[in-house]
Design brief:
With 115 residues, the protein is mainly alpha-helical. The chain is built from 4 helices and no strands. The chain is flat and about 50 Å long.
């Protein structure tokens, strides 16, 4: 199960850079170039994401897998926003995290599905 979480974390690093990295590093470049480069980065996200979901589906149900993905996405995004984009962390990140904790609770309160 840790393999799934590790792959999802790595895939989110690539996806976050594909979606938002151009705002810092490619500002002023032609849009078509930015799109093509973002697709190239996203390719590596999919190389990690697809196996993560296949492996994870052996241990989690689909809703649980999605909630894990969203928690990882927000964690990676918060780190990216703070460390790379130099954005201040606001209280809104904390409130969003509390909402995600609620989502995790509801998706996992019945436990893991039995394989």
């Amino acid at each position: 199960m840790l393999e799934t979480i590790s792959l999802l974390f790595l895939s989110n690093l690539f996806m976050t850079f594909a979606w938002y990295g151009h705002l810092k590093y490619m500002n002023g470049k032609p849009l078509l170039l930015v799109i093509v480069l973002s697709w190239g980065i996203a390719f590596f996200e999919y190389i990690l994401q697809v196996p993560a979901n296949r492996i994870g589906f052996r241990h989690y149900d689909l809703g649980q897998l999605k909630v894990i993905q969203e928690v990882i996405t927000m964690t990676v995004f918060a780190g990216f926003a703070f460390f790379i984009m130099k954005q201040p962390l606001k209280w809104d990140y904390l409130w969003a995290a509390f909402c995600l904790v609620g989502a995790v609770y509801f998706m996992f309160r019945g436990g893991l599905p039995h394989a």
